Amino acid sequence: FKRFDSDSPYFAEFGWVAGAGEAVRLPDEMTLWQASSQTLTQDRPVTLTYDNQEGLVFSRTLVIDEDYLITVTDSVRSDRQESITLSAYSLLRRTDTPDTLGLYILHEGPLGVFDETLSEEDYDDVQDAGRQGLSFSPEQPGGWIGITDKYWLAALMPDQSKKAYFSMRSFPSATPTGPLEIYQTDMLGEVMRLDPGQQISWQTYLFSGAKKVTALDRYAEELNITNFDLAIDFGWFYFLTKPFFYAISYLFGMFGNFGLAIIIFTIIV
Questions:
Q1: CA distance 206 to 107
Q2: Residue 98: DSSP 8-state
Q3: Measured CA distances, 126 to 182, 242, 249 (Å)
Q4: Measured between alpha carbons, how far is 187 from 17 in angstroms, rounded to an integer?
Q5: How far apart are CA 79 and CA 198, in angstroms?
Q6: What is the value of pTM for the model shown?
Q7: Which 8-state DSSP code applies to residue 230?
Q8: What is the tens place of the pLDDT at every residue in 10-67?
Q9: Are the CB atoms for 108 and 100 separated by under 8 Å?
Q10: Which H or E run includes 267?
Q11: CA pair distance 232, 34, nearest whole angstrom
Q12: CA trace torsion 35, 75, 89, 157 (10° rounding)
């Protein structure tokens, strides 16, 4: 999920962190995984495996659909003699501050829903928070976090029955073209105990695509993601603007012309 061919990479990363004081070799960005296939398609999931030669075998299964929702299932099997604790993490990292329209009616930047409440942060606010970042510890399970542009969204979601902790942060980075600001939104899963001879798993959803209302609503229903449609900024009059959108979209489907759909909808209103 990394773009190495860019001076300003924008990528997703998944992995594990061990409990405090536990020395264990975990996969990182330099790990060489074994892949079940070289191509990930809608009809062909890909499973990656890595044996750390210390009694832990990691696997990661990737499934993608037509609207660019990637389901990432991370598992760890233990043949160690002692138990350990692990937490799954995922992050979105964006290099450089993108150009934004700067409209007060349109949010562009980090955002998320925690305890069913939308939180939107400007890039300036995240810069001010620095490496320490803005932390969110929801009381309820589920939630999601991401970075949005006008038309595009990258978002991370746990299995909505699981509890996770979220944060937004930034830090400077030196590049060949000069210093750039890096923005990160991340998610840390609850601590899991891995006993000898057992296996643990954690599932994360990564959405990286266009903010199609119908697609976001479908994911919200199928995956039980609360307020996922709020990734689209419908404004203060959400209770009117979203139904209006669906009405005009329906009329467009009937007449095949948005101009005509808007005129007919205006007459109806």
A1: 20
A2: P
A3: 10, 29, 36
A4: 12
A5: 8
A6: 0.86
A7: G
A8: 999 999 999 888 889 999 988 999 999 999 999 999 999 999 999 999 999 999 999 8
A9: yes
A10: helix 258-268
A11: 38
A12: 90
